[in-house]
Amino acid sequence: MFQSFAETARPEQGPPRLARLRQAMAERGLDGWLVPRADAHQGEYVAPCDDRLAWLTGFTGSAGLCAVLAGTAALFVDGRYRVQARAQVDTGHVTPVDFPQMKPGPWLAAALPEGGTVGFDPWLFTPEQIAEIEEALPGTIRLRPGPDLIGSIWPDRPAPPRGPIRPWPEDLAGARHAEKRARLAEGLRQAGARAAVITLCDSLAWLLNIRGSDIPRNPVPQGFAILHDDGQVALFTEPAKLDEAARAHLGEEVALAAPADFGPALDALDGPVQLDRKSVPLWVVHRLEAAGVAHVWGEDPCILPKARKTPAEIAATRRAHLRDGAAVCEFLAWFDAQSPGTLTEIDVVRKLEGCRADTGQLLDISFDTIAGSGPNGALPHYRVTEASNRTLQAGDLLVLDSGGQYIDGTTDITRTLPVGTPGAEERAAFTRVLQGMIAISRLRFPRGLAGRDLDALARYPLWLADMDYGHGTGHGVGVYACVHEGPQRLSRLSEVPLAPGMILSNEPGYYREGAFGIRIENLIVLREAAPLKGGDGATQLDFETLTHVPIDRRLIAPEVLTRAERAWLDAYHATCRDKIGPLLSAPARLWMDHATRPL
Length: 599
Hints:
Strand content: 15-25%
Strand order of the largest sheet: 4-3-2-1-5-6
Number of helices: 19
CATH class of the largest domain: Alpha Beta
Shape: globular
CATH architecture of the largest domain: Alpha-Beta Complex
CATH superfamily of the largest domain: Creatinase/methionine aminopeptidase superfamily
Distance between the termini: 38 Å
Number of domains: 3
Number of strands: 28
Radius of gyration: 24 Å
CATH topology of the largest domain: Creatine Amidinohydrolase
Helix content: 25-40%
């Protein structure tokens, strides 16, 4: 099993750890300390040794920040985690705060009316993040960078990861890393930069056609890189991670050094050096400034090329999704044969992982499976543990969000399943979520639009019933890389223009606290839309659906769907039957034939 069900943090651990942090703050003359869920690479995912926020507070979500003052502490979490945060932290010592309705800067300004000094680790914050906080602070409050206080009070901190680095096949990537380096170097020269600093682990993996195992569930290596304007790269990572095959793959134009050499290498650069305000640690900015090396702001040069998948990457991920779809359908056929009251959430997770493992090609799961039944389904990022494990009862809905990592692709799929006979209220809500998911699936739109322009289409059916969901409609996805990959999103916050080759999730939902949750998710890839007869001839984009797994018909109120929505669903189910059916066992094929009957 890849997934563990152990409790990784408990609320009662928080108060004594907060007391030790406050003692460390007082010894350094600090009135506060900021603890984000972040590491020096500034990606979304962190290794266990860098999960400071969970260690300090008990909160295990993938995004958040704790502001600790002498007499109070606030945990800032967004809509995905509000219920989870209240359950995981000792609310007598840590107060969950709704973000972005309240942000750290204004909160600090109100909590420190007489002023003070708030410390932070500059490795764990970007220039953009610190600038936003400082803009909201009065002159009497200042932020002071300093060494990692959490590390100084964490006695049993896990060791840093040392996962091996492996070449990723060129035929899957669609381009040699020398071609990528040369293309990005040309962009640096055009921008007038001599070099660029790259800290995001998935950017390193994409640029050099390598994969690693430093971050759980995400096959990326930790490291830093300097890309020079001649296409050469200096890679700073633990030498023990690289065997002879990896070194040969990287070649002579990729210089290898230990992480400790990163700072001196920055000192020796000729500027200007391009830095991404959104992803470079502030420590890097301070180091360059201290050395007198000029820098300019610019986007991580890997971000957009990485997001726009090559034809080879898209072909590879199609194959992975067919394999994964067959595994999920084998699971669903088994699930439907079980009786209410006989399965727990952990049983579900184990069986689904087993079905993926039976493909013989599963390398890891792409994130810990979300298997939330009944009220647990109302937690969008619920993770079942031995303590929270619940038996599935008649009338429950099960939100099952899962994915696999294969050498040729990363998958992410959510299906909501009824346990026994679903209620009318649940069917009505499910149908509205389905209508939003179909709206995105059927969409064609002009070039230049961003996720913020599309997000409302998925919410409109829910808004008509005074319903909504507190997360974005979709996130970017990598190819045998991170299951959350930027910069593209389907979100009211995303301003990145959508472009062909970008892979996104399409996952509207609805969550009723204490009762049930609903989410339906397919992965989709952007492409140029076929021209329409009689149209103006403008280039438009649409989506190809990558996920082919039936949507549970028992939860649909078909009379609510429009004719076009019914036609889309029937066509989608026919495609599932045609593409996945031949890959299934005989019992699962019978299940598929039944599950994909026309409405």
